[in-house]
Amino acid sequence: MTFDMENLSIPIIDLEPARTGTPEQAAQVAQEVYLAFKNVGFAYIKNHGVPQSLVDGAFEWSQKFFALSQSDKMKSPHPPYGWYQRGYSGVGREKVVQMIFDEEGIAGKRKTPDVKESYDLGNENDPRLPNIWPAEELIPGFRAHFNQFYEACAAAEDLLLRTIAIGMGLEETFFLDYHRNKTNQCRLLHYPAVEEELLRRGEAERVAAHSDFGTMTILFQDEVGGLEVEDIHEKGKFNPAPYIQGTAVVNIGDLLMRWSNDELKSTLHRVRAPPLMDSDTTRSKMTPDRYSIPYFISPDRDRVIECLPGCYGPDRPKNYEPVTTQQYVDMRLNAIY
Ligand SMILES: O=C(O)CCC(=O)C(=O)O
Ligand SMILES: [Fe+2]
């Protein structure tokens, strides 16, 4: 795939020094991560700590799951409430909308379908949202792999949270203390092959422009491409965020933006057709299937999120009221489902 790395606005950051470097090296990386999240809201993270074999396995299991018959996938259905983010959602079920909460507005947006199907899972020990697994005999090994993958992502989360705290001049464990229960959401996404023209003309969408809700998201994508991130300098202009081997895309969510009094940016992003592969634009083409796996991180549900120390002062008023994680996330989830 042709892509101009020179114009990549999203920095690539190696997290290894945060894990094994000297305190000075760790502080240096923390500064880079902080600046990326302040200026862009996105970073490509190398050495995030999730073993490549687990990532590769997760994509293989995801493909196997979505290759099941529709009736088998529907045996572990997403419940009909937005806040219960577990189980399988078929094509067209969910419509990602940006900050529209009235029913008329949502119905209007739903007219252009998101051409994707998804399977959501979370922490095995979460009493509020038990997982909705496919039966073991249908897809043996799926559950065990994703439990392992979930744990590995949680470990990567911890290192990222420590690093951001250091970068913001907070206690290293400041954010960890708000993320003890690991009530995160891991989502398998499959975007079926679709006629490219439909995506380009906006008659079908993969994921419409949106920001994520929580603290941050760790996203694994395959090589197909199509993820686009809004340009920080030019509203409405979206730049490609292509696959880069050995990295995860990490982005800030709305709750951390609010928590930081808008210092860290929760940047709009979407999934469209991947960049054209060759000069042949005359034929009607199908974009290949695409798979991605976002891991959405949120603070513990009962915690009150209010302006971070250092993000307000006499000349810098607090922009938001305190809110609990649960109030905030449920409000956002109920709007999309
Ligand atoms: O599929 C992707 O690459 C991104 C998906 C995404 O942004 C989301 O699910 O919030
Ligand atoms: Fe997203």
Description of the molecule:
This protein is an alpha+beta fold. The protein has a single domain (5-336), classed as Sandwich (Jelly Rolls). It is built from nine helices and 16 strands. The chain has helices at residues 16-20, 23-39, 52-66, 70-73, 103-109, 142-167, 196-200, 254-259, 325-336, and strands spanning 12-14, 42-46, 87-89, 117-122, 185-191, 194-195, 207-210, 216-221, 227-230, 238-240, 247-252, 269-271, 286-287, 290-297, 304-305, 323-324. The chain has an eight-stranded mixed sheet. A four-stranded antiparallel sheet has the order 7-12-9-10, with no helix packed on it. A hairpin with a 7-residue loop joins strand 9 and strand 10. Helix 3 packs across helix 6. The longest helix is centred in the middle third of the chain and has 26 residues, at 142-167. It is globular. The two termini are 34 Å apart. 39% of the residues are buried. The model has no long low-confidence stretch (mean pLDDT 90). 2-oxoglutaric acid is lined by residues 189, 207, 212, 219, 221, 227, 269, 271, 292, 294. Keywords: Iron, Metal-binding, Oxidoreductase. Belongs to the iron/ascorbate-dependent oxidoreductase family.
